[in-house]
Amino acid sequence: MTDEFRDEPTYGEHTHPGHERPAVVVVGVDFSATARHALAWALDYASHRAAVVHTVHVVDRRWSPADLRADAGVIQREVAATEAGARAELESLTAEARARVGALHEHVVVGKPADELLRVAREVGADLLVVGNHGLDPIAHLLVGSVAEQLVRRATCSVMVVRTPR
């Protein structure tokens, strides 16, 4: 990124009095190669702005007919174990990035990915929401669309969909 246009404020820099704050970037991380690439992009973006970064991993817990027959305690333990594993992996993934950005926070939540990413973005006052592009199979895409498409349609902040290099 060059600074040739640096006289103008960059995205996320609030220049009017009383609204100075660092940019807030939320990045969705599902531990795929695509998401890792989006995280790298978001960290690079944030490091040039001393931005606050919130990484979000959503434990996508879809219910199956077998869940209806399962003991509620078993399901809760399964979800808790999944959350703990995701939290450890997210902390490991972001450990070296902490020195590069203004502040970094990790969120592991349970729910539908688009809904939870939008909720966290709203709660932290995100200026930018970053996700990777994922290729769904044609049937899944027809039925539910992609998380990225849902975010672009519903987000109240800007959304960056980062393509993975081929």
> What is the fourth-level CATH superfamily?
HUPs
Overall structural domain count: 1
* Shape label: globular
Question: What is the averaged pLDDT score?
Answer: 79
Work out the strand percent: 15-25%
Output the helix-strand order: EHEHHEHEHHE
Tell me the distance between the termini.
21 Å
Tell me roughly what share of residues is in helical segments: 40-55%
Point out poorly predicted stretches.
1-18
Strand order across the largest sheet: 3-2-1-4-5
CATH fold title: Rossmann fold
| Individual helix count | 6
Main sheet record: 5 strands, parallel
Secondary-structure-derived class: alpha/beta
Characterize the structure shown.
About 40% of the residues lie in helices and about 20% in strands. By secondary structure, the protein is of the alpha/beta class. The chain has one domain: Rossmann fold (3-Layer(aba) Sandwich). β1 (about 25-30), α1 (about 35-45) and β2 form a beta-alpha-beta unit.
Provide the descriptors you would attach to this structure in a database record.
globular; alpha/beta; 19% strand; disordered N terminus; 6 helices; five-stranded parallel sheet; 166 residues
Gist of the model:
By secondary structure, this protein is of the alpha/beta class. The chain is built from six helices and five strands, in the order E-H-E-H-H-E-H-E-H-H-E.
